[in-house]
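Table S4 entry, Glutathione-dependent peroxiredoxin.
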Amino acid sequence: MTIKIGERLPESTLAEFVETESEGCALGPNTFQVADLVKGKKIAIFGLPGAYTPTCSAQHVPGYVKNFAEFKSAGVDEIWCISVNDAFVMGAWGRDQKATGAVRMMADGNAAFSKALGLDADFSKFGMGTRSQRYSMLVEDGVVKQLNVEQGGGFEVSNAETMLKQLA
């Protein structure tokens, strides 16, 4: 069952490779409760099949990085990229994409969050196992306000531009 607009995000954890040690966050992979991260915040989330994959690297992440200032002006507190990869890969990919400070690269290593959302996908035929579908959502205080799920491998509705129009 896919999550719907008006529903609360499921209880789950995500991991992030933290580049700079701070109070409560060690250098390296840190695991966070989703409910704690979303409390009182407006977050633009986009999910995608995999780090370093063609559409994800050439269009999806760059669009959100490029439009970071516009998201902030529209009242978005954070932007998250979620993929079924480990935190080390997501950290390296974030550095490669120059996403640091703009997009939080969140690892859903075992696809638990993607499955709980009902937005997982079987990419076994490509040798990639269980992955995330390509989507975007706007979440306010843990509740889904917008949800855009791509159909058939497309890249039409989960891009940064569509989310910005929905925020206007």
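Strands lie at 13-18, 28-33, 42-48, 78-83, 104-107, 120-122, 130-132, 135-140, 143-149.
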